[in-house]
Amino acid sequence: MARMLNRAIIDVIVAYRQIGVFDRDLYEGLPTPNQSKGSWLRAGTASVLLALGEDVGPSLFTLELWDVEPSPLDHLDWSVSEVVDLEFPSGWLCVEMLSGGSLSDVFNVGAPGRYSARFAWRENPDWIDPDSEGPEAFLVAQFWQKAT
Length: 148
What we know:
This protein has 148 residues and is an all-beta fold.
């Protein structure tokens, strides 16, 4: 059974429908957003660009480290989800907010190496309008080290 080893929840701003995650020691530039039909997630070697299908603003981003691949997220709650493979040279992850700058060293996956990552997002069903309290959306990233 999979066991969560580490977790962080951070406040982020998703601007222009995009937000990125990258390793601090290999900033290769965020991957180019997909301009045609297909994946909402663009992965580089050590970076990922989430190109959300909706305009959202203030959001909660949960980052999790697991000892092995966790069970899939509930599809009813997390209908937009995808797994990618990455290689992190430092293990320290940063978040790039396109209009809010970078958040450095927000999460440590541990040892440098190859990881699989599941990214997902969903709108907050309780968010009504700009005067509402709470985040407009939720994002999650689950990481686990790939077997060598």
